[in-house]
Amino acid sequence: MSKEDFDKLLLEALDEGLSSIGESSKQAIYFHLEKGFKIKKDEIPYKIEDFARAIEKIFGLGADFLEILIMRRLCEKVGGTVQLYVSRDFAFAEYVTEIKRSFLKKKKAEEAVQCDQIVSQG
Fold first, then answer.
1. With contact defined as beta carbons under 8 Å apart, do 11 and 3 qualify?
2. pTM (2 d.p.)
3. Is 122 a member of any domain?
4. Of all residues in the chain, what percent carry a pLDDT higher than 90?
5. Of these four, 3, 63, 65, 107, which has the most CB atoms within 10 Å of its CB?
6. What SS3 state is found at 79?
7. Within a domain: 69
8. For residue 14, which of 39, 40, 46, 44 has the smallest C-alpha distance?
9. Could you tell me the CATH number of the domain that includes residue 100?
10. Residue 108 belongs to what domain range?
11. Three-state SS for 83?
């Protein structure tokens, strides 16, 4: 699997996660990301930290809900179990980075995070 494959899966997971709040809301978020934060939809895989900060500014504490949905979708898309070297207080961008690293390198890890184990720490 390639970086481009992962980026495509990430964008699909983002779409599906944001669709949970409604199609028009999802489109409004993408519009706000582009106009207010200078993040185009197709740039999100390359600006994941900026995306996370923008979502947190837009939704405040409610961002955790969307981030968890997106992480679960992404986890499912890359195979359900992802090997990660993480602590329980990892932020969204760190999870995506580690999922990507695991997806691309298929390394053995100290901890396997199941999709249903991703929960809010707040």
1. no
2. 0.77
3. no
4. 44
5. 63
6. coil
7. yes
8. 44
9. 1.10.1200.200
10. 3-117
11. strand
Over residues 81-99, the pLDDT tens digits come to 555 554 556 688 888 888 8
CA 4 – CA 6 distance, rounded (Å): 5
47-58 pLDDT tens trace: 999 999 999 999
Scanning the structure block, which residue is given the tokens 């390394």?
Answer: 107
Tally of domains within the chain:
1
Helix then strand then coil, in percent of the chain rounded to 5, is 70, 5, 25
Which tokens belong to 121?
């720490």
Work out the burial of residue 15: count CB atoms within 10 Å of its CB; fewer than 13 is exposed, 13-18 middle, 19 or more buried: middle
In a domain, 78, yes or no: yes
